[in-house]
Design a protein that fits this description.
It is a single chain. It contains four helices and five strands; from the N terminus they run E-H-H-E-E-H-E-E-H. It has 114 residues and is an alpha+beta fold. It has a five-stranded antiparallel β-sheet with strand order 2-3-1-4-5. The N and C termini lie close together (6 Å).
Length: 114
């Protein structure tokens, strides 16, 4: 399963790197996910080749719950305003703030996708 994570907001590149670091520190993700910072080129309304997303190629069954848990913990520790977009295939969930109920929306939306 391929997961794409985007962050929008004033400090998007910095926040994307921060999330990437948190994900790399999670043992289950290190064991069962190919993790990469990537760019898909300039998006509409953006200039340059900044980092656009994190890609996670998930190979283990426990990696998806570890991913959700890690994002929830990371979001809880952030103070800046931004939104996180998670894509799996043709499904996309936008999480506009750190509300844990919205993190659960990711799990509900993608239930059965993994």
């Amino acid at each position: 399963m391929l997961i794409k994570v985007r962050i929008d907001g004033r400090y998007a590149d910095e926040e994307l790197r921060s999330l990437y670091t948190w994900l790399r520190q999670e043992p289950e993700i290190r064991r069962n996910v190919e993790l990469d910072l990537a760019t898909e080129g300039p998006l509409e309304g953006k200039m340059g080749d900044g980092l656009d997303l994190i890609t996670l190629a998930v190979t283990g069954t426990l990696a998806f719950p570890a991913f959700i848990h890690t994002i929830a913990n990371w979001r809880h520790n952030r103070r800046r305003e931004y939104q996180v977009t998670v894509e799996i295939g043709d499904k996309k969930v936008v999480v506009p703030d750190a509300d844990k109920d919205l993190i659960l929306k990711i799990v509900e939306e993608f239930d059965g996708s993994n």
